[in-house]
Amino acid sequence: MNKSRVVVGMSGGVDSSVAALLLKQQGYDVMGLFMKNWEGDDTDEYCSSRQDFLDAASVADILDIPLEVVNFSAEYRERVFSLFLAEYQAGRTPNPDVLCNSEIKFKAFLDHALALGADWIATGHYAQAHEINGQFQLLKGEDGNKDQSYFLYRLNQQQLSRTIFPIGHLYKREVRKIALEHRLPNSTKKDSTGICFIGERPFREFLNRYLPVNPGEIHTLDGQIVGEHQGLMYYTIGQRQGLGIGGTRAGNEQPWFVSEKDMQANVLYVVQGHDHPALLRSSLTAVDLSWISGASPHQSWVYAAKIRYRQTDAPCAITRLEHDSCQIGFAAPQWGVTPGQSVVIYESKVCLGGGIITDNV
């Protein structure tokens, strides 16, 4: 029996619960850790953390493993939330889940687990880690519909070398089946969506608490004023809902989409039609690069990329590579390239890393 100690990040969901179960079956000395990452307006109306803890505690009791609660809310505000606000204020659309993984779940959590004497940490992510000649690779999860490698692309060798992904080789239906067979109380629990501090609350209402509102005009690309926006931070490239533009223009009944944000002039630009050329980009520039192997991929080689989670892999090549920025060209134009989001590069099932999409195309 393997008596290595592994600390499992238990969120109260079925995925991390089955991860803990499988590790215990494999003979590990398993300990659960429930992370609290937000304080303040953490109420049952918008955030399920209280119920999540009860679910995690119930599973830990069934599995007969200890469960510790640790509060990382200070680290979260400093390392994740402050950047989240700064990016929105600059008109970009950040992905806090990416930063939360690299800064909290695989840094603050990892440091805490090692201090507890752990040999490994484990999470319920749908991803896989593979070692070849002392080099660690991050691979996609076997379940293509649940693969979460996109959110993990900023992990480094040290983090991967200490991480186990117990359910990465499973499909979601298999995970739920295992939970049901072992009578875990959260076997049918709905998957969590979004990030806890926003929850189901109105997004604009939430941002209003932290950032000043700055309304302005909505323009077409030819300069016609068609409405007023409530603040550029509330909108993202490709957005269709919530624009508040009534009627049609020149008989065009196609829906409106956000195509551009001019922060200096405080103007939101919109176009009509999902396939409008202004919504398509053949290339993008990424900054703040992070490569899992520690080395950059080859320039001009054909890879695949995702510019958003759940997107189909798009054939691409890195056409220019500098120290902390690169330009990526696509075989086919990509829809809704959004500054602030992550572009993640793959070679087959291997996640190589990626960077943050910048405004400069």
UniProtKB/TrEMBL annotation:
Transmembrane segments: none annotated. Its EC number is 2.8.1.13. It is an enzyme of class 2 (transferase). Residues 205-272 form the tRNA-specific 2-thiouridylase MnmA-like central domain. Residues 282-357 form the tRNA-specific 2-thiouridylase MnmA-like C-terminal domain. GO terms for cellular component: cytoplasm. The active site is at 100 (nucleophile), 196 (cysteine persulfide intermediate). This is tRNA-specific 2-thiouridylase MnmA. The gene is mnmA.
